[in-house]
Amino acid sequence: MDSVKTVGDGSFRVTGSQRKIRKIDPKINIYHRCNHSGLCPKRVTIHVPKNAVGKGSKDAQLFDIGVLNLANRYPGEGTDCIH
Question: What InterPro entries does the entry give (predicted)?
Fold first, then answer.
């Protein structure tokens, strides 16, 4: 739905919308090469909670993922050559 890059301090803001009837399952994929020398970048996936998704005229709540140390390993982390 949206693709962004971080600014100098590492922060980012993502917004998106859809016009379909089906529900969406939003997530944030972070691609990086911290402590990784493989061909494809590492991918960390963060699922966005339902209260951070607006519905119609209802505003979404801010979802702050906090500070991530991408040198650490995270559950479900993998590599991704096609993204």
Answer: Transthyretin-like (IPR001534), Transthyretin-like_sf (IPR038479)
DSSP code string of 16-66: ----SSSPP--EEEEEE-TT--SSS-EEEEEEPPGGGS-BTTBPPPP----
* Dihedral sign, Cα of residue 65, residue 80, residue 54, residue 4: positive
Tell me: the pLDDT tens digits for 31-72? Answer: 999 888 889 999 999 998 888 877 766 677 888 889 999 889
In the Cβ-directed half-sphere of 14, how many Cα atoms lie within 13 Å?
18
Question: Could you tell me which of 13, 30, 21 has the C-alpha nearest to residue 80?
Answer: 30
| Predicted local confidence at residue 30, as pLDDT | 92
